[in-house]
Specification:
Layout lengths: L1 H35 E9 L1 H6 L1 E2 L5 E18 L5 E4 L3 E5 L10 E10 L1 E2 L2 E6 L12 E9 L2 E9 L3 E5 L11 E2 L4 E8 L2 H4 L9 H4 L3 H6 L2 E2 L2 E5 H4 L5 H8 L3 E3 L2 E2 L1 E3 L4 H4 L2
Parallel strand pairs: 1-13, 10-15
Antiparallel strand pairs: 1-6, 2-3, 3-4, 3-5, 3-8, 3-9, 7-12, 8-11, 9-10, 11-18, 13-16, 14-15, 16-17
C-alpha cells in the first residue's frame, strides 16, 4: 500500500511540475509578445477646410456634405534599413467630411501585434468603387458652392485611379508611425482638396492657385440650378489637364507630399 501511494504521489508531483512549466512558458511567451509588438491605427483626413468649408480662388464658398474617397490596401512601412510592413489590405470608402471643426481624422481600422519599429512611411491607392451607390468612382464630392447671391448644389464624381507613396513620412506638429513596444501609434493619409479648388487666402501666383481649376470649372456644367457631373464629361474642357494633374497631387501624409504612380489618365494627359 505504501509503495502504491508513493508512486501515485510521484505522479502527482511530476504532473504539477509539468503544468507549472507550461504555465510559466505561456506567461513568458505572452510577455515577449507584449514587449516587442504594438498596435497601428490607420486614419484618413481631409483636414479642417473639408469639414469646415473654405473659399476657393475665385471667391466661391465651398462646403461639403460628403466627400467620399475609396482607399485600397493602405500599408505603413519603413523604407530603409530593416524591412518593416504593416498592411491593412482591403477597400475602405471613407467620408472625409464627417464631424465638425474639431473632429479627429476618420479611423478606418487597426492592426494589433505589429512588430515595434518605425512606420512613418505610408502607401495607399485610390480605386473606383466596385459596388454601392457610387460604383465606378474613386472620389465623390457632394456639397454647396455659394458666391454673392448664387448658391449651387454640386455632386462631382471622379473616376481617377492612382497609387500614392509617402516615402518621406508624415510632416506635421507631431511624429506619427513610431511604434514602441506595447504601445499604439497612428498613421494618417491626408487629402488636400484645395489643390482642386485653390485658396482665396493664398497669393494668386501660388501653385495652389495656378495649378487648380476652381469651382468655375465645374459651374460650366450647371443645369437646372445644380451641378451633377462625372469625370468623363469633363474631358472636352480646355482645363481638363489641369484638373487631372491637380487630382494627382491630392495624396499627402500631413503636409508631406506623396509620390504618385499608375494614374489611370496618365496616357491620355501625356498625349
Amino acid at each position: 500500500m505504501l509503495k502504491t501511494m508513493s508512486s501515485f504521489h510521484r505522479q502527482i508531483i511530476v504532473f504539477t511540475l509539468f503544468a507549472a512549466m507550461v504555465i510559466c512558458g505561456c506567461s513568458k511567451k505572452k510577455e515577449v509578445v507584449e514587449e516587442t509588438t504594438g498596435t497601428i491605427i490607420f486614419t484618413a483626413n481631409g483636414e479642417d477646410f473639408v469639414r469646415r468649408g473654405f473659399v476657393d480662388k475665385q471667391g466661391w464658398n465651398i462646403s461639403f456634405d460628403n466627400l467620399f474617397v475609396n482607399i485600397v490596401d493602405p500599408v505603413a512601412y519603413m523604407p530603409q534599413g530593416e524591412k518593416l510592413e504593416a498592411s491593412m489590405g482591403g477597400t475602405y470608402r471613407v467620408d472625409l467630411a464627417l464631424g465638425d471643426d474639431n473632429a479627429d481624422p476618420v479611423t478606418i481600422g487597426k492592426l494589433d501585434n505589429v512588430k515595434a519599429g518605425n512606420y512613418q512611411s505610408l502607401k495607399f491607392k485610390l480605386k473606383r468603387a466596385t459596388e454601392g451607390d457610387y460604383k465606378g468612382f474613386s472620389i465623390v464630392m457632394i456639397g454647396m458652392a455659394s458666391k454673392e447671391d448664387k448658391t449651387v448644389p454640386f455632386t462631382i464624381k471622379l473616376d481617377e485611379e492612382m497609387d500614392f507613396d509617402g516615402k518621406g513620412g508624415f510632416v506635421g506638429d507631431e511624429i506619427r508611425g513610431m511604434l514602441k513596444p506595447g504601445d499604439t501609434t497612428t498613421v494618417e493619409m491626408t487629402f488636400h482638396f484645395d489643390h482642386i479648388f485653390g485658396d482665396k487666402e493664398a497669393p494668386e501666383d501660388d501653385h495652389i492657385n495656378t495649378g487648380s481649376v476652381g469651382f468655375d470649372f465645374f459651374k460650366r456644367f450647371l443645369k437646372d440650378g445644380k451641378v451633377e457631373v462625372e469625370q468623363s464629361e469633363m474631358k472636352p474642357e480646355k482645363d481638363y489637364k489641369t484638373l487631372v494633374e491637380a487630382i494627382w497631387t491630392l495624396g499627402h501624409l500631413g503636409e508631406g507630399h506623396c509620390e504618385v504612380s499608375n494614374q489611370s489618365s496618365a496616357g491620355v494627359i501625356e498625349q
